[in-house]
Design a protein that fits this description.
Layout (H helix, E strand, L loop, with lengths): L12 E5 L2 H4 L11 H6 L21 H10 L4 E5 L2 H4 L9 H16 L3 E7 L5 H4 L9 H16 L5 E5 L2 H9 L11 H24 L6 E11 L4 H24 L4 H7 L11 H4 L5 E14 L7 E4 L15 H15 L4 E5 L16 H19 L4 E7 L18 E3 L6 E3 L1 H10 L2
Parallel strand pairs: 1-2, 1-9, 2-3, 3-4, 5-6, 6-8, 8-9
Antiparallel strand pairs: 6-7, 10-11
Bound molecules: 5-hydroxymethyl-3,4-dihydroxypiperidine.
């Protein structure tokens, strides 16, 4: 790595991140069915119809994985809790095995000197709640509040930081407008409702955690740099709107108590009744804001209904996701989030990383591309820090190769290689480089 720990402020937190459905193995430990199980079982939704039933079998390899986390010399492990593992029916009686699992996870982290950073929801909605309309149903905010109390009532006393929902854009737009993620809808009314309810659920969970006496609570948004594909005014307007429903909608709801006018031009007619009255809950104060950042998109206008734009391929080097590598975007978002929304709250880069077709060669996994990627993005963080942006931490996505949702298991984001036949873990060169850079 081009950096070492001492190049960052003393209190700066380095971490690695994962999520429950992507690594745990949903078939184990009495978890209930989720909308990702049925989405994946439906032909055409997921590459090779791959699913999370076994994933990395983290559920049964917990200690080995905790040792890998500690061995990377990171300060923080960001993980998520599976709603259906804790409440198999989404509501009602908790699954004791599920609660025990997260208890062991948290205690195992603390025993190894790693801070537990929990995300309550990272996309696997219990099927029983999906049957009731899922994120389209306003009641989801209350259901989510109850889930929050069930899981945090058990582990909240030892959690270092917590955020309710990972990437509200993915829960709302990607899953209900583009249909790329469960529940696979392509419907603007469903989208408007999901985008609002996900924020209502966020605020409800923050209130529930405050009620339990928890602190260090945040919001985690994914941000994507919207680049006009050409110098025309049409491309500039298209990029501005993309930025609106991708980036500004959620930050503005939480930190400004309103939604952007340009986004409401399209979504307004489809919003649920009384949405304007919910900002008191949505804007429940948080202690920090997390940004997940990966890439930029090159946006061009198209014919057709709102939002009337599309993406064109850009010229920059790309990751295995086809995503352009654009570290300037991370600098841009850190600065902009601080100046326009959070104004002094600590910011964390809660996810950043790249996918590559990494393989084991003679027992090692060379991934110089990932080392370059991390270096260039950490240098963007340093630039923001130098300009006074209060960046408090940076977490790599991901600890290990895992289930990349609709793209199945072939997109490898990990610092640790996973052989999905044998489930053998092999730390990649980037893991060793990070561990060396972070050694105390
Ligand atoms: O794997 C995902 C993760 O679940 C959420 N953020 C983006 C990652 C890479 O696509």
């Amino acid at each position: 790595m081009d950096f070492k720990r001492s190049d960052f402020p003393e209190a700066f937190q380095f971490g690695v991140a994962t999520s429950s459905y992507q690594i745990e193995g949903h078939a184990f430990g009495g978890a209930g069915p989720t909308h990702w199980d049925s989405f994946a079982a439906t032909p055409g939704n997921v590459v090779r119809a791959e699913h999370g039933q076994t994933a990395c079998n983290h559920y049964n390899r917990l200690d080995e994985d905790l040792d890998l986390i500690a061995g990377a010399n990171v300060d923080v492990y960001r993980f998520s809790t599976s709603w259906a593992r804790v409440l198999p029916e989404g509501r009602g009686t908790p699954n004791p095995e599920g609660l025990d699992f997260y208890d062991r996870l948290v205690d195992g982290l603390l025993a190894r000197g790693v801070k537990p950073a929990a995300t309550l929801y990272h996309w696997e909605l219990p099927s029983a709640l999906a049957d009731l309309g899922g994120w389209r149903n306003r009641d989801i905010a209350a259901w989510f509040g109850d889930f929050t109390e069930a899981i945090m009532g058990r582990i909240g006393d030892r959690i270092w930081s917590a955020a309710p929902i990972n990437e509200p854009w993915c829960v709302g737009w990607l899953s209900h407008f583009l249909g790329h993620h469960a529940p696979g809808l392509r419907d603007i009314r469903a989208t408007a409702r999901a985008m609002h309810h996900v924020l209502l659920a966020h605020g409800t969970a923050i209130q529930a955690m405050r009620g339990l006496g928890m602190g260090n609570l945040g919001a985690v948004c994914n941000l994507e740099y919207a680049n006009p594909a050409d110098p025309s005014p049409g491309a500039a307007a298209a990029a501005r709107l993309y930025d609106g429903y991708y980036n500004r909608f959620f930050l503005s709801g939480i930190f400004h108590k309103r939604y952007p006018e340009d986004v409401l031009e399209g979504l307004g007619p489809h919003m649920p009744k009384g949405w304007e009255d919910d900002f008191g809950v949505i804007s429940e104060p948080v202690d920090w804001c997390g940004l997940n950042y990966y890439t930029r998109k090159n946006i061009t206008p198209t014919d057709g209904p709102w939002p009337a734009h599309g993406e064109v391929e850009g010229p920059l080097p790309k990751t295995a996701m086809g995503w352009e590598i654009y570290p300037e975007g991370l600098y841009y978002f850190l600065k902009r989030t601080h100046e326009e929304y959070t104004r002094g709250l600590p910011l964390y880069v809660t996810e950043n990383g790249m996918a590559a077709p990494d393989g084991v060669i003679d027992g090692a996994v060379p991934d110089p591309h990932r080392i370059d990627f991390l270096n260039s993005h950490l240098s963007a963080v340093q630039r923001a820090l130098a300009e006074g942006v209060p960046v408090a931490g940076y977490y790599v996505w991901s600890l290990m190769d895992n289930y990349e949702w609709a793209l199945g298991y072939e997109k490898r984001f990990g610092l640790v290689h996973v052989d999905f036949e044998t489930l053998k873990r092999t730390p990649k060169a980037s893991y060793h480089a990070l561990a060396a850079a972070l050694a105390r």
